[in-house]
Sequence to fold (333 residues):
Amino acid sequence: MLNFPIFPSQASSYAGEVDLLYFFIVAVTVFFTVTISLAVLFLAIRFRRRHKDEVGAPIHGSLVLELTWTIIPLIIALVIFGWSAQVFFTMSRIPNQAMEISAVGKRWMWKFQHITGQREINALHLPLGQPVKILIASEDVIHSLYFPSFRVKMDAVPGKWTSLWFEPTQTGTFHIFCAEYCGNNHSGMIGTVTVMEPRDFQAWLAGGRQEGPPAQLGERLFSQLACNTCHLETNQGRGPSLKDLMGTQVKLQNGQTVTVDETYIRESILNPQAKLVEGYQPLMPTFQGLVSEDGLMQLLAYLKTLSKPAAEAQTAATVPAAAAPAPAPAPQR
Ligand code: CUA
Fold:
């Protein structure tokens, strides 16, 4: 048999929903294209001019006709809007128990890191049936992390973090693409996802680790950059305590409040004065250029372990067999 798939396999929990919506839109488009083309052809022949002196009949519009061709398309458009919003929400709401993986796009490769420390380049191993959240950064230009079989794609944008999630529902190997033109070797910025049975994944995860978990590297970075001299565990330091901070609301100097999430953490490291916490002096220097994208993600992973609920969620998603690795110092830019 010739193996020539028209569509990539439906290998994530929401792939079927995405395809159904897509097929609906294609069906509507095909229906109207065919109907209108046939009508044009039929009317052109049926009402063609038969004599040289023939004059067309005077027509003064039809309210019924105009309402019909306004209201029916309106309803169809609203159905597509409502349906796609529903699919969009499914894809946007990241489940709490999702296993976190970081991805950094760089001309021309995808670098992944698991929460236990394993690094992969242009390859990603995942367990079957486990929701996965991927936090995405870029070291240079805009890339786009694309998993066709999981029906999900997200831009990697320099200077900010983006994220996507999916739950693999099939074992096997699937494509990774870069879906945003990023230079000469854009077409070579590809890789392979390997979805394994959870047992096989745990065995894979237990072998071949070269460095500690990101949270551990983040903790080391936290003291290397001397963050710990100001951000003490108590609120006695020159900077606010970072304990149990993730997900909480903090009051700012300007009277506004902000939720402490990944975006706020990132901004506060790179541009500390942007959203200054109430009651603290603008003393913190910027760490722009001093911390790599990997380093930022490691700092984030460390801060999450300081906040109990997030730390618990991460432990649940981590494999027990892979706990307590022997850390080796990793060079940081
Ligand atoms: Cu990276 Cu295209």
Remarks:
- The first strand starts at residue 99 and ends at 106.
- Residues 66 and 172 are 53 Å apart (CA to CA).
